Amino acid sequence: MRELNVAEITASVREMCIEANYSLSPDMKERLTEAAGEERSPLGRQILHKLEDNLEIAAKEQIPICQDTGMAVVFLELGQDVHLVGGDLAEAIDEGVRRGYADGYLRKSVVADPLRRVNTGDNTPAILHISIVPGERVKITVAPKGFGSENKSRIFMLNPADGEEGVKEAVIRAVRDAGPNACPPLVVGVGIGGTFERCAFLAKKALTLPAGHRSELPHIRDMEEELLAKLNQTGIGPAGLGGTVTALAVHILSCPTHIAGLPVAVNICCHVNRHAERSL
Ligand code: SF4
């Protein structure tokens, strides 16, 4: 069995918090450039070019892309043949977040109690999702999530009879209700199936897929393409000021569910769809 010291996880999480906040992944940058070419409104094009300029300046000057540097969402795929040593895993991840947000001069946006609202001062705790997978590697994805768009995310517990049309209506409704407030152009993560919490997890995970990723399942792929086209006909446009690019991508993940239900979660992300990955 392979041993891995959790100090390595701390160091990687620190780096990834900074990297994700200073620079979008190449797939997101490419998608934004493509979108600027697709946008038909002159004002919309101008906004998309400003967003591209903003990305370039952030990377060059090593400063955050956005003032909301997000709550640190961490997906950890833990190989079942790895023996973690050197301390507590969750604490090691929080220590990485703590150091990354301090060293990267990133805004601390987490409150300890949702009602008392006192800032923890170091952006911890992270939201940690752990999956046990075969093998002896540890894959870490850090996805800092801004709350302008998180606040517009929705869950719909549909009836099975609502079917594909019901799912599409739910996604379009969530994006229409979000309007300009989620900082469009958006990346829309959709989770279908499972239980109440499983579909929300899938929707969040869908945001970490490469921008423009298409499902291998033909009916899901068709839905992704149709939804992207329909969302871009809503007219919301870049920054909500009108245009033909409201969404950059729609990613859907699905899983088995109960005979009596059709859960759908829509996790909305702004154009600052940040994620960094490492395999240790
Ligand atoms: S929703 Fe996104 S772009 Fe808007 S403020 Fe939050 S992180 Fe920044």
List keywords for this structure.
binds iron/sulfur cluster; 25% strand; 8 helices
Question: Could you explain how this protein is built, in words?
Answer:
- This protein is an alpha/beta fold.
- Helix content is about 40%, strand content about 25%.
- The chain is built from 8 helices and 10 strands.
- The protein has helices at about 5-20, 25-40, 40-60, 90-105, 145-150, 165-180, 195-205, 220-230; strands spanning about 1-5, 70-80, 80-85, 125-135, 140-145, 155-160, 185-195, 245-255, 260-270, 275-280.
- The strands form 3 sheets. It has a 4-stranded mixed beta sheet with strand order 4-2-5-10. Strands 6-9-7-8 form a 4-stranded mixed beta sheet.
- α1 (about 5-20) runs parallel beside α4.
- The longest helix has 20 residues, at about 40-60.
- The radius of gyration is 19 Å and the shape is globular.
- The mean pLDDT is about 95.
- The protein binds iron/sulfur cluster.
- Iron/sulfur cluster binds near residues 149 and 270.
Question: Can you summarize this structure?
Answer:
The protein is of the alpha/beta class and 280 residues long.
- Could you say which small molecules are bound to this protein? iron/sulfur cluster
Give unreliable regions as ranges: none
Number of DSSP helices? 8
Radius of gyration: 19 Å
Structural class: alpha/beta
Biggest sheet layout: 4 strands, mixed
**End-to-end Cα distance:** 14 Å
Widest β-sheet, arrangement of strands: 4-2-5-10
- The topology string of helices and strands comes to EHHHEEHEEHEHEHHEEE
Report helical residue fraction: 25-40%
